[in-house]
Predict the structure.
Amino acid sequence: MPHAKVKGMIPMSDPRVTLIGHPAPAWLVNYADLMTELVCFFIVLYALSAALNKDVQKAKKDVEEKMKEDKVASEVKVTKDGLQITLEESGENVFFEIGSAELSPRMVEILGKIAPTLRTLAKDGHDIVVEGHTDDVPIHNAHFSSNWELSTARATSVVQHMINTLGLPPAHMAAIGYGEFHPLVPNDSDEHRAKNRRVVFLVKNKPPNFKEKKEPGQESADGAADQTPVATVSDNGPPADQNAAAPSGEPTTENALPLPQEAPPDQQGQ
């Protein structure tokens, strides 16, 4: 039964109405392709934001050279989140004693090598997150009841040393522990366990600065408005600013009404 046409409405049988199961308009295909390409374009730009940063690229090169000179097993790469520096225990590079969060002399030496590069990035506005990772050997002693606590304490020890001794700004430093739950390789040998015992520095991309320069007359950061000259009144004279408006309800000298004159003597009493 055909649908009845309602006044002011397009009937359902009209070809301009796209029903379920009917093909979409031809223009919609090109429009959908364009939107998909735009989304991919912005995703690529976001992923390359750190790679396009000259400071991050320079820091990556500096750290790679220093780690190569000191023969430290490490991986330095740029990801979509920023610069990632991974220091792995291998051979003589023991960062912490077993079951302890105290820095070894070798770890202090390595941190001193990379501190100038990280300090420059931190002072430029980059946040640095230090990640602690352990192997899967269970731990339970007087100081730590699990690898969670041990990995977090080790990351915190690194952060405190870099702040108190190496001069990195504390406002841009953070510590986090992952325990044994983010292994690089299976914990099936001593060599693999040493590889999983690592410290990772994540230098995050610098957030955009949305602060605008303060214009004259605008409020400052603490909410106080800029001071403007104010007319003052001296003890024996008119206001310093002759153009200042008189108080409400009080006429000025120029606009004051004339006083009534006294009547002549012969008109008084009339």
